[in-house]
Structure formats: structure tokens, C-alpha cells
Fold each of these.
Amino acid sequence: MGIEARERRQPWILLAPALTSVTLLLFVPLAFIVVYSFWLRTATGADQVGFYLDNWQEALGDPFYRDILFSTLRIAAITTVVCAVMGYPAAYFIARSRGNKAILLLMLMLPFWISYIIRTMSWINILGVSGALNWLLQTLGIINEPIQMLYNETTVILGLVHFLLPFMILNVYVALEGIDISLEDAACSLGSTRWQSFLEVTLPLSLPGLAAGGLLCFVLSAGTYITPLVLGGPRDAMFANLVFEAVITQLNWPLGSALSLMLLAILGGLVLIYNHFLGMGQLMKGLG
């Protein structure tokens, strides 16, 4: 009996360090944020301890926050679609390449070796008034004076696509790698063209990877604040920028906590929907 009890405890003993880390670094801070969201910031700047719904009423009822939330979800959706359109052909090319997959995957992973902030700020040197693109257009005589291409929604989406495209490619690549290429050959032998075999065999089988990449791109783009802060204008703030503004600039932790929990609930709901229909296995493959 003692041996059986020890065997039952062994998995929990092995999981104890990871569970402890997740509890202390994730669940405990999240519990503090939930508690903070019901406190009240007074006119003197101090936080009044208690159970107040003022922050939630402001976050849910103010059209200003609602409009920026919808704008954030719209930008995240556009970014996801662009990543899917650009990422699928690249992933298909890598998956069907022969002999140089390792080199292509290495090139795909290279951006992860550079700081996200540096990659984002590099667009200023490319699209700025004195940037490389304006210099090239002026040198070719296409324009007479520099064009303002920064600090708008299009630039924000461009920066997000630059950041998230590798995640989409990796997830789709993992799904395509798991498809037996002989299935396409079998479809062709039965009279299908290459394009028909792709549409009827390869594409449906790779949809879980495409969905996993889409989920990652959507969640990460909706929760970012660096890209709109660096590349966007005053009207291009996303919801995470409101959280940053409330907590860091205004020092209004209760309101910032309520706003962050709103965004967490929406994105968490999307993850639960994805897990219900497709499961998290494909997502873990893409992240691995």
C-alpha cells in the first residue's frame, strides 16, 4: 500500500515546482488584480479599499472604452487575416521543400533573436520622413517631397504583421508536415488536378494549424501596446494602451485592473471557444 501511495504522489512531486511557479507568478498576481478592480481611487490619489463597482461601470458603460475595444478587435482581426494570407504560402513552400528545410526554418526563426522593440522601431527608419523608403522614392523621381507614412492604423497593422507572421507560418508548417504527401498523389491519380487536390485534401487537413496560428495572432495582437505606441498616432491607441495609461500615467490601479480584466475575459473566451472545437494540442505543437 505504501508503494502504491508513493507512486500516486510521484507525478505531483514532479509537477510541484512548475505548479508553484505558475501559482506564484500567474494566479496570485491575477487575484490581486481582481481585488484591485473593486477598489476605488479617491480624489486625493489614494486607493479606497472596499467593494465598489464604479470602475466596472466606467469600463463597461463609457463609449470611449467600448469604441477602442472594438477598434482593437478589428485591428487584431485584420492582422490575423493578413498573416494567414501571407503565411500559408510560405509555410506550404517550406513544408514541400526538399533538402533546405533546416535553412528555411532557421531564416524563419532569426527574427526571434532580435528584440521585439528593436524590430518595431526599425520601421521608423524605413517609413519615416527621412527614412529609406522616402529616400528611394525621391531618388527615383517618383515623389518630390517626403510622404508621411508613419503614425496611422496601416502602419500599426504592418508592424503587427511583421511581429506575428512567424507564429502563423510555424503553426501552418507543423500542420502541413503532418499530412502524408501521398494523399495528394492519390487524389491526382484519381483525376484531380494539383489545385483540386490542394483544395479538397491538403487545405482541409491543415485547417487546425491555420486556426491555431490565427488564434495566436489574434490574441497577441489584441494584447499588444508597444506597436501602437511606437508606430501609431493619438487616434490609433489600442486597448492595452488604455491599461498602460491608467496604471502607469494616471496611477489609477483600480481602473487599470478592471480594463485589463475586460480584455482578459474577451481573449480568454476566444481561447476557450478554440479549445472546445479544436483542442489545444495543435496550438502547443506550433509553439513548440
Amino acid sequence: MTKKYYGGCDVGSTTGKAAILDENGTIVSTTVVPSEIDPEITSVQALEKACAQVEDLNSYKDLARIVGTGYGRNEVAFANENISEISCHAMGTFYCNPDIKTIVDIGGQDVKTIAIADDGSVLEFAMNDKCAAGTGRFLEAMSRIFRMDLEEFSMLSLNARKVIPVTAQCSVFAESEVISLLARKNPPEDVAAGIKAAVSKRCFSLLKRIGIRPLVTVTGGCAKNQGLLKSLSKKIKMEVTALPVDPQIIGALGAAVFARRNGSA
């Protein structure tokens, strides 16, 4: 194998993501796998699945350099370097669209807002990791209340005629409130709109702490939730900019960009 490849692996709380770039900086493969209890197993599975899509690669061991990121990055012993997910989300977004200056990253267990500098570095960030409300796990729990999968639930609020507020600040109390609202025969789509509005409000409060500069995008699995994107766009009074790749792999992509940059230096 004469061509060099660079890997990034984002070990999250619910999924592991991997991205591979060739020596020209072109994305050659990406993948998402469910997280295992052991972060290292998650990273190996994600990278091996990504390598299987590249003819020149037999294993992640063939990669010229690997950068780990995400909450489990320090457990990935074989990575050449570990870089925070905040920096990797900024770099991955910058790789996709240098005009984007603000990120809302809704992860499985936390929400982050990131301001990006003109070179793709982090200007400022704010983070909510003290409460599950507004996170991916919160939306998963809500979808179960509605007896829907996440894709169905993401579309439900698009049919709402009005927004029924969900006022509880705690995820546990919010679940109880939603169950009560549905039991009182409120239209499910209107209640779902209230849930999305509550999440958007939390994101907006974090965005205000870093300053909202266009363009704004959303990363993480929740970026696929169409109802949430619509609600957030309304809250910030501007359209959320879509990314040209799966928004769930942005952290892994940023890690791969760092791997290529630092491995070529």
C-alpha cells in the first residue's frame, strides 16, 4: 500500500463514529456503530467497519495516523493522539463549510455550543452536561412515550397546529408532564412541538453565552430530527445550515482532519 490514510474515531456515550481521509484530504469512508461498554472495543469496531469500505485497507492498523475524540477517547490506547470533541466538531464543521461560525452539538448525554474562528479553531464554547433534558437520551425517552421510533418522532411535530408548552426543567419531571398532557387528550403532534420547543430553548440559552454568528449548524445524531431543526430555526430567527455529510460523524471527521494534518507535518 503506497497511499496513506488517516483515521478519526469519536467514541460517544451512545455511538462510536469513524471517518477515514486519504492523503489528499478526501473522505473515503465513514461509519456509525452502537457503543459498547468498553470504549476501546467501540473504537475498534467503528474503525474496522470504516476500513472495510476502503480497498487498500485491511485493518485500522494500516492507517498512517489515528486521532481519538469523544468522551471515551482516553481509553483508546492505540490512537496516536487524543483531541477534545469540541475541537474536533469545530474542525470537522470547518472542513465541510468554512462559512459556518456557530455549532449546536446535541450529543447523547450533553449539549454543547461552539463558536468557530476563521481557521477552524474554537473561539468559545458552552456546555450543559449536568442534566439529561435536551440531550439525545432525552429525545429517545420521549419517543418511547409516544410509542414511536426516533425517525417517526422527529417528524411528528411538523404537523402541529400549536405548541403545547412543556415547562419542567428536569428530564424525569418532563416525562411525567408529557404523559399527563397526552392522557388529557392533547394532540400528540402539539405536545411533540412543545418538547422540541423546550429543547430549542435550552440550546438558545447556551448559544447566547457564546454569541450567535451565522452561519449556524447542528451536529450529532439529533441534527437528523427535522422537528427540532424547525423549532431551533424559529427560536434563533435564522435557518439552520445543513452539512454535506452525516452530521453524526462530524467529530470523527474533525479527528481525521487533525490526524492528516499532524501526520503530514
Amino acid sequence: MDGRMGRWADGRSITRRDAILSTVAAAGIAAIAPPIRPTAHRPSGRLKQSASRWCYRSIPLPDLCEAGKAMGLAGIDLLTSDDWPIVRQHGLVCSMGYAARRDDFIPRGFNDPANHDLLVGELERALPLAQQHGVPNLIAMFGNRQGRSDAQATDACVTGLKRIAPSAERYGVTICVELLNSKVDHKDYQGDRTAFGASIIAAVGSPRVKLLYDIYHMQIMEGDVIRTIREHASHIGHFHTGGVPGRHELDDTQELNYRAVARAIADTGFEGYVAHEFVPTREPLRSLKEAVEVCSV
């Protein structure tokens, strides 16, 4: 999940604010949008796949659900609680939910003890609702460094996440803390290396606190994706995809072999969701369907 969400056709960065405003605009034209005609259902192999909502904000959510279900998706990713019932009505799940939607959601994370009351409170309120709507995961952030050492951040994150872990375990919902790159998209973000995040998850020691491993971000920061996934399989609760460079389609315009990555994930016995979070440069649903096929291993 990005604060900077890919780029428009003219090269300008797409931000989370752009995505939210575009979603509102799309709702206004939903009544006149042409219906999407689902094709025959395709199974998605050993992995449960989903699609991040913001990447397809021009498509009304019910239509995205129907089209996604027809191509083999099991869920829609990164939704606030208002949208959770809509997804369930269409036979899918919200594979990753927001406990809150804030402009400072990414930089304001668990690495600062001053944030703990806010973050824990948001998650405490969202957990029972997530359980009610069958939402398996809620997203959280490590936060921006702002001068903190890794040791200070680790202590703070472990303390804060241990506060929320008992509630997550009680409701059967996993808190997934996202790894992001600080090289291109999120300057100063502290959770920018797998080893850093995994050490925190291990110290918290809860089956309901895991990493959200964004393949796009970690390819930029450290590469070595398949070996890292195998080594840290027990620490990872969710995946995001995206072509490198640019966070676009999972095709031959980018540098990763996503079929091999998907196979490596499946071979670990992973039972969570692999969510496609790329900005299509072509017809959105066709690009999404191609990505589902690539990861159907």
C-alpha cells in the first residue's frame, strides 16, 4: 500500500488523496457506467488472490467484485468498513481492511510510543467489526523514522503491537504491518527491510501479528525476493504485488518473474492472500486478469 500510488499517464505521481477523490467521483457516475460482463470463472490455483481497490477506483465496487470473482479472485483488498458488506454480498471477502483512513496513516506508526493509544484504539474498535464481516486482516504501519534508531523503533513497535495482540487473537483477525521502500516512494519510512520487520514480529510472538510483505517495495530495497520469502514465511501474513519499476503490470515490461515468485509463495504452504496492487497502464480488468493467470500456480 502506497502514499504514492504509481503514476498517471503524464508521469505525475498518483497519491492516496488522488485515489480517494477519484473513488468519490466514480461513485457519482456509477449509475451511468456500462455493466461489466463477467466471463467464465477461472480457479486461481493454490493461492488465494485479491485486488487492491484503489488501483481500480474508476470501476464501481459491485462491478469490480463481479468481474474479479469471474476471473478467480477471492477478495478485494484495502477497504474501509463501509465497503466490507458490499464485498460479502458479492461472494468475496475484504482480504485486508483499514481500521481507519487518515492522511498520516503511513508515517504515523508503531515506532513512536506517542502513537500507541491512537493506533491501538483504532484497531480495538475495528477488530470486532472485522470478525463480524469475515475480514481476516487489518493493516498497520511501522511509521517514519524521524531520527529514531532501529533499536528504539524495535522496542516501541514490540511494545505497541503486544498491546493489540491479545485482542487480535481473541477476534481471530491478523494485524499485518507493512514493509515499504524508503528509496523511491516513502522517504524516511523505517520498516523498509524484511529483517527489521521480521525481528519485531518474532519478538511480539503472536500468530495474529504478521508482516505485509509488499513484493514491489522489497524488490526495490533488497531484491532476493524468493529466498527472503522462504526464510521468513512464518513472519508473513499477506502479500502485495506490483511490477518493478513503476508498480505496473506483472508482465515482460518489468524485472521480476512473478510466476516463479507465486510458485515460491505457494510452496511454503501459505494460506493467506496475495493481493494485486499495481496501477494498470492498459485496460484495467484485462491487466488484472492477466496478473491472476500469472499467479495461478
Amino acid sequence: MRPAPGSGPAALRERAASALLAARARTRALTTCVDERELVAQHSPLMSPLVWDLAHIGNQEELWLLRAVAGQEALRPELDPVYDAFEHPRAERPSLPLLPPREAHAYAADVRGRVLDVLERAPVEGGGPLLAGSFAFGMIAQHEQQHDETMLITHQLRAGPAALTAPEPPSAAPDAALLPAEVLVEGGPFTMGTSTEPWALDNERPAHPRLVASFFIDTLPVSNGAYLRFVEDGGYADPRWWRPEGWEQVRRHSLVAPLFWRREGGAWLRRRFGVTEPVPPDEPVLHVSWYEAAAYAAWAGRRLPTEAEWEKAARHDPASGRSRRYPWGDDDPTPEHANLGQRHLRPAPVGAYARGASPLGVRQLIGDVWEWTASDFLPYPGFRAFPYREYSEVFFGDGLKVLRGGSFAVDPVACRGTFRNWDLPVRRQIFSGFRTARDAEPV
């Protein structure tokens, strides 16, 4: 597998600067479209105030790029404990002495200006593991984009009229209705993870062989229309389909459908970024928990794919035997490949993005919706925490489930065929969907 393109010092600096500037433009868009009252409010106990995310982005950038990389003195050391994500749960953050919006913007802008100066001089080759391949700058660009996705979730949760707009995604490809429901992925070894992707995070490493038995996987993500059949068949009233913990969630919270859905006058509606609209049957289902995804799969006589199965379906090229960076190949994603980067504020219909298909014809593995897998979030063989334990290592265990593939809310810089996301199986506010799989019958 060849590394990502652009490996010389000038190209690395240009790539890092471009990623940082793109992330900041998105951060500003998400934090200037509402007034200061909305920025300091906590729109859900599951989320931070938007102004906390804004200053946290600046603080992490200062910690890693100004202090760790450039060796500079702390600009605002008193902010470190306030914006430490591990010290303060989200529900408690409104009570902290947060920077007011104008000061938070000014702090983040001050840090960014200094960082761009550092980038011009930083030894992006031969400067140690933190700087190799401009990793530290890529890590911070990814961190900011991940918080941008978090802020977009907050926008979805906030009440009131729409504050964001975006063009509609493309339609399904002309051949969408002719696609097979599932494809066979032949058993055998493949290379999982990466050791060459310069901005890959520690939990994606190292590349290692993984043996997977033959299985079938859905050609497309599960749609709203398909999920609605589960709903209307009494899926939320039948404990047969649910894990015990999931069934407890259904009963405790009186769940009857995905988050943000409601039934009105015989029709199903949803709320999406301040707009109420009919549930579109041809879009991938969104805002479902792992328990809901697993229950649907059981009802359909199928199961969720394991993380290894998902990655083999997304990256393995049977013709060459190697693992690609993305389903379509090694080139970075474009708008023709996948729905990424908040270009649209919704998933594209199932069957879109024919150019983004895998060698076996599986579509929309990248973008649109995060896809729940059956797997717990665990380290790969040979895992080494870098550059700090709290990014991945402290989360490993059987309490968190892996999601793959990104969503329309994920920027390409933080989305690869090897990228791993994780969350609690009860989470519904995230931009999560799924596809199903089944074992192949032995020959």
C-alpha cells in the first residue's frame, strides 16, 4: 500500500496549512451563525456549549503546536484545566469559568496565527515522530474537524429555526434500483489498519494481517424505508429482537423510532437542523443507536458486520490482494466519491456515489452515515499509544462499539478506510446508521 500523496517538505506544509485553514473556516461558520446567547447555552446535557468547543480547539492547538512542537511558553495556562475534556464531563461545562464568545474567538485566532508561523519553520521531515509527515499539524486539524462535527450535532439538538444551510446532495445513481441487495466477500486474509498513512491516529496502527471468513454484506446502507418496515412491524414492542440492555433502553425511554422522528396524522416526520420534514424513505437511516441497529438486523434475520468485515469490504482489492486507502482506490476523496465535509446537511439517497464503490460494488462505505459494527473498541496487535494515552487507550474495552466510514458531517481529513470511531451503544444523537451482513453458507 503506497502512502498518501504529497510527501516532500513543501507539500507537507501546504497540506497541513490547507487542512488547518479549512477546519478553521468551518469552525467559524458553526460559531458565527447563531448569537452569543446560543453560543453560551447548553442545548443538551449530552453536549458542551458551543463556546466551550471553540476555546477547547484553541487550547489543544496551543498545547500541541505552540508548546510541544515549538517549545513556546503557555499563552493562557489558566485555561488548561477549564478546557480539559477529561477533567470536566459535558454536563458540568456550563458552570466553568468559560471565555465569553468574543474572547474565545480572539484566543483561537491568536493561537492560529502563531501556529501558521511555526509551520513555516517546523522540520516536517526528520524532526521526530511528532513532526514526521507533519503529523502534529494533521492531528490538530483532525481534532478541530472532530469538534466541528460535535458542534454540528449540537446544532441538530438545539431548538429554534434553522441556522445552517447547504445544497441538496446528489440523487441516487441511475443504476441504483438494479443493484444486488448484498455482495459476497470471499474469505481469506487481508491487511487491516495502516503503518504508512502519515496522519493516521494511533488506534489505526499498525497494519496487520487479519483472517476473515466468507460473508455477505449489504450493497447499500439500510434506508429509512427499510427501517420503517421494522418500526411498523412492531419492532420496538417486541423484546425478541433486542439485547437485554437495549430492551431496557426502549422501555425506560419509551422509544418507538429513531431520534428526531415523530408520527403525525398517519405520516412520519423528522426534525433536521431546525426544519421539520417528511422522513425520506430513500435516505440511509440516521440517529439510531447500536442497540437499534442490532435489533433491526436480528429482525431481518441478519447481523451487524464485524469491524474486520467492514474494513475488508471497504479496502480489500481481490484482484491485487492489497488494501486500498479508500474503497475506490488510493486517491483522496472528491465530491464525486462521497458525501463528506458538511457540503450537504443530510445523507445522499442510497445508491448514490457510484464512483465511490468498492471493487466488489459496495457503495457509500465512506460518508453519509457512520456505520455501527458488531465489534468492541479494542487495540490492534502491536498497538502503541501516541502521542498520548487519552486519545485511544483509555477507551479500549467492551463498553464501546466501533463505527466506521464517516458521515456527511465528517471532513475528509478525518476520514479514511482505516479510521475508527467509537461510542456508547446507547448513543443516538450522533450521525449514525448501519448496514447488515450474514455468514456465507459453507460450500
